[in-house]
Design a protein that fits this description.
2 domains, two-stranded antiparallel sheet, mainly alpha
């Protein structure tokens, strides 16, 4: 019996030594400083380009200056994309470290449970008093005191094991929260990277079209600037095909809808247009999952958060007479290994997730007089976005609009994702000028 106690006490020591609790390792200080330096160098270059852009915008409107401005904007976007990619690479390393820590802690917890179970079964084999009595009869007082001491050591060790298990569980919970936060961060940065890439493509296209229109001639460029009626006609007639909706609108019609929403919600039309442009290109891109012919892994049952969005989605599509299996919604983001990050399922031009739409659809109907409200209808989408942005603090100030845009994107105003809000304000200024030109 004595050897048996000693065996388990020794085993406990092995557990503590071989299976230490691992937390997510702190990032290497040198690596962290190097990362910060890289990002600072890029930010310095971006700031210099922004100063050049401000100077160029204040200069005479010439073709050369316009091309210079576009090239500077393109270079700024390339630097911003580079910065985002560096952050994503750093996050990937942190996630790997966190995953390893979680796996190690899970292994230790499993081992602790097994050993605790063995020791508790051993202690419960006989009543303590009968056990001590047997020792007194069979081995004498010396043997009894020795075994009693071993018994007390074992009890103390079991208590320590229980405490160690609790600590390990707490650490595991903390690690899992860290992992989820890192996954969320990755998803948001991937969204930012996508917006940045689309913005770069847009600037390159703008430069190509400008050179095509002017043939590189300054006189042609100046004539284009003077022909305000032609400019207004081109702006008004921009076509936005509403994919998955089976219709299309012009920019002029979108402005009319945005202005009607402005009159009822107080959210400026240009700002609203900027948000919906960034979310879905004014309804052109309403999602590439759950479409007719998509594989099962892109279906709503896989990509939507089960407890939060699946039942609301079924209810919404049923009310609208839509087939839930072929109604387009957004796809979730994926990491570099192709694994799903978070959930998709955002609907229509305003990209509302089903559970959020449920909270706004009756408010939309109260303003439009149309029931049920339809997230894929451009008018209902504008109205819902206006109401949400108003609740997020949107007003006629840049600060209010920036914060409302950030909350629309991520639920907060974390400056890690400030490109979203900054780009919305840039688009807002552009649309303000477009709307002004339409009035000429």
């Amino acid at each position: 019996m004595k050897k048996l106690w000693q065996k388990y006490i020794g085993a406990l020591l092995v557990i503590f030594l071989v299976f230490p609790i691992l937390t997510a390792a702190a990032p290497d200080e040198a690596a962290r400083l190097e990362l910060e330096q890289q990002l600072q160098v890029i930010q310095t270059q971006i700031t210099a380009l922004e100063q050049q852009l401000n100077t160029t915008k204040g200069e005479k409107k010439t073709l050369a200056n316009k091309i210079k401005q576009l090239k500077n904007e393109q270079e700024r976007l390339r630097l911003q994309i580079k910065s985002t990619n560096i952050k994503l690479g750093d996050l990937d390393k942190k996630i790997s470290t966190t995953v390893k820590a979680i796996e190690t802690n899970k292994a230790k917890i499993a081992r602790l449970k097994i050993d605790l179970s063995k020791l508790l079964r051993l202690l419960n084999q006989k009543d303590q008093e009968l056990f001590l009595l047997k020792l007194l009869v069979d081995g004498g007082l010396n043997e009894a005191f020795t075994e009693l001491a071993n018994y007390q050591k074992l009890s103390t060790s079991i208590g320590a094991l229980v405490q160690e298990s609790r600590i390990a569980e707490q650490q595991l919970n903390s690690q899992q929260i860290t992992y989820e936060e890192q996954q969320d961060d990755t998803r948001e940065l991937l969204s930012i990277a996508k917006i940045q890439q689309n913005s770069l493509v847009g600037k390159l296209d703008e430069q190509t079209q400008l050179l095509k229109q002017t043939q590189g001639l300054e006189t042609t460029f100046q004539n284009l600037l003077k022909d305000s009626k032609k400019q207004a006609a081109e702006i008004r007639s921009r076509i936005y095909e509403l994919l998955g909706v089976g219709t299309q609108i012009t920019f002029g019609q979108a402005v009319t809808i945005a202005q009607a929403t402005d009159s009822q919600t107080g959210v400026p039309a240009a700002f609203l247009l900027a948000i919906l442009t960034q979310e879905s290109n004014l309804g052109k891109n309403v999602g590439t999952c759950n479409r007719p012919g998509d594989p099962p892994e892109k279906g709503w049952r896989v990509i939507m958060k089960p407890a939060r969005d699946q039942e609301p989605f079924k209810k919404i599509t049923e009310e609208l007479g839509r087939d839930p299996d072929i109604t387009p919604v957004s796809c979730p983001m994926k990491n570099k290994n192709g694994s799903q990050l978070g959930w998709g399922g955002a609907m229509g031009p305003a990209q509302f997730i089903p559970s959020t739409w449920i909270g706004y659809k009756d408010k939309v109907s109260a303003l439009t007089g149309k029931s049920p409200a339809d997230p894929w209808d451009i008018r209902d989408a504008f109205m819902a976005a206006g109401l949400l942005l108003k609740n997020n603090g949107a007003n006629n100030t840049k600060d209010g609009q920036w914060k409302a845009a950030m909350r629309y994107f991520s639920g907060g105003t974390n400056t890690k994702y400030r490109f979203y809000g900054d780009n919305v304000l840039t688009l807002t200024a552009k649309y303000e000028q477009d709307i002004k030109d339409l009035g000429n």
